[in-house]
Amino acid sequence: MSTSATSSGRRPLVGVSFKMYFDIPKTKSYLDESISLLSSNLSSLAQPADVFVIPDFVTLTSVASQISSANSTFLLGAQDVHSQDSGAFTGEVSPKVLAQAGVKFVEIGHAERRRYFGETDEDVANKAAAIAKNGMVPLICIGEVSKPKNINDLSISDVEMVVEECWRQIRPALEAMDNQAEVVLAYEPVWAIGKSEPASPEYVVKITKALRRRYNKDYVESAKGRTDASMRILYGGSAGPGLFAKIREGVDGLFLGRFAHQPQAFIETIKEIAGTK
What we know:
Elements: E1 13-17, H1 24-41, E2 50-54, H2 60-69, E3 75-78, H3 95-100, E4 103-108, H4 111-117, H5 121-133, E5 137-142, H6 156-176, E6 183-187, H7 201-220, E7 231-235, H8 243-247, E8 253-256, H9 263-274
């Protein structure tokens, strides 16, 4: 897509992870349909947007081929990575190899990785550095574990406590990366994952705007030399039609899960985020 940016200097960003829900035939059919739908809707989008898909590792190269052969604007993502380019790490995936395969975004630090595989903030930082060093963009999943008591009437200190908890997940990664490297944060409160009552749009906006302020204070307005445009924030929680309009003040897009496992739903969300003419 065109390289022009939004007024903030940050391009809208939207993507979907297949996690471990898709098999090989489903991945192929999903991509075929999504590539076709995006292509036919491209001219109706009001502004350029970066759109990515994150398949499993087994289908990564075949998805790259599908995107390439269709001359599609889809960008490729990966679900995890090792922090070293090579070595005796049986079963792991090299960031160098992901870059060679055409990967643009690499998801790290997801709550499932932390819960099931014991991933730490230090692990995430090491992976972020390796991703950036190989010319890719780390997509760092962040979120607070505890639900604030005053959820419907957040004080400044409530917001600061949440931001502080998230910042402990973000700061080591930013410190480990080159200051010129781009980064994406995918925010979702851990306390809301899988719950019947997700975080409210108002809550998401308050926290993500505060995260942006903290980033700009610590890394843009300081001697760190980063830019506001080099960090984009996505909301990574359950998303349905109309959500983006309610939270766009705080985020640059959405990181979608099962809702977007239907190609038509994915394309409709892309249209919501980029806008239509």
